[in-house]
Amino acid sequence: MSGAAFEADGVASFDVIIVGAGVSGLCLARLWLQANTPFRSILVIDGARDDATLRTFSFWSPVESVFESIVRHAWKELRIVGQEAMHAVPLGECTYRTLFWADLQRLVLEEIRRAPRCRVIDGRAEEVVDRGDHVTVRVGAEAFSARWVMDSRFRLADLRVDERRWHSLRQHFTGVLLRAPEGTFDPKAATLFDFRTGLAEGRSFFYVLPFSAEEALVELVTLDREEAAPVIERYVRGTLGLSSYEVVAREHGTSPMTEQAFGWRASGRVRRLGIAAGMVKASTGYALTRIEDDCRGIVRSLEERGDPMAPPRGSRLYRFLDGVLLELWASRPALLPGIFRVLFTKNPADRVLRFLDERAGIGDIVRIVMTLPSWPFLAAMGRWVRRRWFGRAQE
Ligand SMILES: Cc1cc2nc3c(=O)[nH]c(=O)nc-3n(C[C@H](O)[C@H](O)[C@H](O)COP(=O)(O)OP(=O)(O)OC[C@H]3O[C@@H](n4cnc5c(N)ncnc54)[C@H](O)[C@@H]3O)c2cc1C
């Protein structure tokens, strides 16, 4: 019985159950609802409430996103700031964009609730069992069944990285939304990397996203768990020179950085999504574009083959390059500000962004590599290869 939610033995059945109404779950739900498929009944399970607290997501892309209608702010110029100088970097094909989680959540949950044979339930999936020809999911005392389950559950605490062979860093984000007098910010340009944090060199940076002349998101990103509030205040008052401002909202979170592969397939009918499927780019912490690409791949496979169990796009070369960057970041962080400066000043920004997004072809990669300082990278490559094959203990 394709495309219909029905009850069998008292169990509500769907074509697909999406576990987790976070970024990847809602991205997939939105694309699935737009798909040309007879498998149209969707159940989304998440215990998280509609969330009005500040959570922003930024990304770049040369093409429109599935979330284009809710992009709040977009920039065509980036700024990269080192200790000595600020570099303005114009974007060509790409636009840097920010959206708010609350908008995304509202948009997609409403679409699911309006769609026939689709449901959102408030609860935690406690058991997901692949029974060969279908999957059952238990939520408290209730059970549901589906042809497929797309599972975005992920707990940082459960992540096991073989640290002898792969890096395991954490990126800690703390953001404040500031309101200051009119004319304080220049909304034309987004500062992507400002390494003047006053912390250990290269292990942290700020980004500043001016939403208007009076409002900006200032976000501290660190590899170390820091008490962020005084660092942010020092930066805002001292470096940005703001004497009067108000903190309107705050956001905080931690993301994994590892080049170790995450398995995308939990079983024949259960596929992982989002962070759980390894969609956080190891060397940058960005995931949104990769999540969207991955979800588009799933839906394409559903349309073309009647089966959403498609592997994510991935490349060994990029995984290796991520590993080398993580190696440098972990062992020689003070080099990072210079490396980012060179990356963005000796290459067109679009090429760098394509590279960071794993869309650059081999020609672009070679051109980028030629602009980077060779010795630190060669040394990092050597350390990475040794670690990968012999383990860290023998370094
Ligand atoms: C602070 C922070 C800022 C980030 N900013 C950016 C950014 O600007 N740009 C970018 O590209 N990437 C960013 N990322 C990385 C990435 O895009 C996000 O982490 C994104 O939320 C990942 O989506 P996800 O669906 O994998 O996880 P989530 O969005 O966390 O969704 C997982 C969902 O699963 C639910 N869940 C968990 N267990 C259960 C269960 N048992 N039953 C049902 N539901 C369950 C959770 O409630 C949650 O809603 C950021 C990450 C962090 C931590």
Give a description of the structure.
This protein has helices at residues 23-34, 101-114, 228-239, 288-305, 316-331, 336-345, 349-356, 362-371, 374-390; strands at residues 6-8, 11-19, 42-45, 56-61, 71-75, 77-81, 86-90, 95-100, 119-121, 127-130, 135-139, 142-151, 169-179, 189-194, 204-210, 215-222, 246-257, 265-267, 270-272. With 395 residues, the chain is α+β, with helices and mostly antiparallel strands. The protein has three domains: 6-54 and 99-154 and 260-305, FAD/NAD(P)-binding domain, CATH 3.50.50.60; 169-257, D-Amino Acid Oxidase, subunit A, domain 2 (D-Amino Acid Oxidase, Chain A, domain 2), CATH 3.30.9; 316-394. The strands form three sheets. Strands 1, 2, 3, 9, 10, 11, 12, 18 and 19 form a nine-stranded mixed β-sheet that branches. The chain has a seven-stranded mixed β-sheet with strand order 7-6-14-15-16-13-17, sandwiched between helices. A hairpin with a 4-residue loop joins strand 10 and strand 11 (135-139). Helix 1 (23-34) packs across helix 2 (101-114), helix 1 (23-34) packs parallel to helix 4 (288-305) and helix 5 (316-331) crosses helix 9. The protein is globular. The termini are far apart. The mean pLDDT is 93.
